[in-house]
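WARN no homologs supplied; continuing
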Amino acid sequence: MLFFFLKNSSMIKIKLATLLDTTVLAQLGRVTWEESHGQYIDDKNNLLEYLDKNFSVSKTKQEIQNPKKFFYIIYADEIPAGYAKIIVNENQENIASNNNCHLERIFIQKEFIPLKIGQQLLFFIQERAKELKLDTIWLSVYVKNKRAIRFYEKNEFENVGSLNFKVNGVPYENIVFSKGL
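OK structure emitted
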């Protein structure tokens, strides 16, 4: 699936990732997760262990083969700039609907944030969830990640609860946001 935008003279493309994209996706995941969350993890060895475990090529390949998980890569002028990962119909205690889209990851590399392509990727994901006949989209955000919280509030997501996201056993309080589609 391709989706093109023209933003700030950059050609933007969003594509469903395949097994051929596994290495690029693993690298994007590792870089963008560290850029967005690394400052919040006090123990840098814990951070590196988490990145190694969750963003390896083999782990990414395993996840991309799961029929309930979809990865979308966003390109700016043919350069991988970020990605999103959704999980279809994942149960979560704060979400009433079983017909939902869990936006588990949406990350843009730091250098591409000024292009505001995260907004385009979010819009694309919401439209994709509607095509899949899902009625709710939900996600979680670390409580100290104020920029992300503002982004989701601006996009009409509502705070519906909290959960603890663990990085190698260390809990980090997250806000659960939800939005009807």
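Residues 30 and 51 are 6 Å apart (CA to CA).
OK
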